[in-house]
Amino acid sequence: MLQITDLQVEQKMWPLLRQAFRPMFLLGASFSAIAMLLWILVLSGQVSLPVYGQVMFWHAHEMIFGFVAAIIVGFLLTAVQNWTGLRATHGRALGILTVVWLSGRLFMLFGAGLPTWLVAAVDLLFLPLAAILLAVPLIRVKQQRNLFFVPVLFLLTFCNALMHYGLVSGRFDIQQLGSQNAVWLVTLLMAIVGGRVLPMFTANGTMTQKAQPIEWLDRIGLGSLWLIFILNITLFSAQLPNGVMAALYGISAVALGIRCLRWRIWITLRVPLLWSLHVAYWFIPVGLALFALRELGITSITNSIALHALTAGAMGNMILAMIARVSLGHSGRPLQPKAIMSLAFLLVISAALSRVVLTWLVPDLAMSWLVFAAATWIIAYTIYVVVYLPILITPRPDGRPG
Question: Which of 212, 206, 348 is nearest to 268 (CA)?
Fold first, then answer.
């Protein structure tokens, strides 16, 4: 049975701090729209920013360790309550965690004149603190299944530290080592969590039979993703023939593609909270396939194009779809989003297709596609913020904690 705080204490608590999804989703989504607007204004020469490091570093870092990290932490520190039956991080502890995250974003944005050690220290504090808050209830109930999320958060911290070290040492290759492997880790998390919830969500939302997992297929898909991360973070991938890495990316793409195909996207087309998740997951095998083709020598597929299939494509779409669903479910509301959220889902899909497909096929208009992608992304996440703000800052209608 769920152990909860005294109801009177709960009712006096600011609703925004009652569960982690509330501040993390609201601030993370708002930040993604603001950061994308600033990024495109810089690219078009409209503004200059006093960022820590330089603006390319800031964009790559903040979309991963600012935006994506906030959503991951919000999701995990909310889900742990269901996993363990213990009251998850809330109140003062959640407020401190939120302030730490906000401080990191401000230091990164206005850190041009600050000591590098100070900016790095503030920025690096968020994920380890979240990992500890996640570990405590998991260890208390001795739940092994979800404990692996804790070392993953520390691995993300290591990738973040690599980015800072690469900046300080003037080593772009180390910066890229940190940012790109953080993307592989987040992709792995999406593949794992998506594999757990998508079949169940699809069955429940369409009133159909749940697609049962195929163990060997899951092991190939997820195992190959783990191997991709290990080979890249250790730099061993650079020592292997291109054909070997192409085969590994290709095997992972095929296995995860078959896995997703079995979940039957075609039966979800009338349920926006489902088809949006399916589309997001499909960007994972697409991104892996692009990396495979790049390894085979198709030079028109740049690292940026392949990487953005995973970031703008898989992450951007899955985050919007998941926070739209989780914000309803964990605030005690029916899983029936407002109709305008379908437009938001379509817009972020358009952003990904513009950033990945159109910049690849029509590179002469690359800047136009970037502006279009940024604009559609900004509108999509702004829609979420406007629609869900009243939900995230008000108590549950059923009076329960959270």
Answer: 206
Handedness of CA 318, 321, 325, 331 (dihedral sign): positive
SS3 52: coil
Backbone angles phi, psi at 3, to 5 degrees: -90, 120
Would the CA dihedral through 113, 116, 118, 122 be positive or negative? positive
pLDDT per position as a tens digit, 49-61: 999 999 999 999 9
Express each pLDDT in 194-239 by its tens digit.
Answer: 999 999 999 999 999 999 999 999 999 999 999 999 999 999 998 9
| HSE, side-chain direction, 13 A CA sphere, residue 134 | 26
126: how many CB neighbours lie within 10 A of its CB? 26
pLDDT score recorded for residue 11 = 66
Is the alpha carbon torsion for 271, 274, 280, 286 positive or negative?
Answer: negative
Contact 187, 314 (CB under 8 A): yes
Taking the alpha carbons at both ends of the chain, their separation in whole angstroms is 15
Q: Both tokens of residue 241?
A: 């023939």
What does the block give as tokens for 334? 């029916």
Kindly tell me the burial class for residue 361, based on how many C-beta atoms sit within 10 Å of its own C-beta (0-12, 13-18, 19 or more).
Answer: exposed
Calculate ∠ Cα 259-195-67, nearest 5°: 120
Token reading at 59: 């964009």
Q: Which residues contact 270 (CB under 8 A, 6 or more apart)?
A: none
Please give the Cα distance from 396 to 402 (Å, whole number). 7
| Kind plus residue range of the DSSP H or E element containing 29 | helix 21-43
Range list of H helices, 44-143: 55-61, 69-84, 91-109, 116-124, 126-140
- CA 11/CA 401 separation, integer angstroms: 8
Q: Which two three-digit tokens encode residue 8?
A: 């009177």
Q: Check residue 19 and report its DSSP letter.
A: S
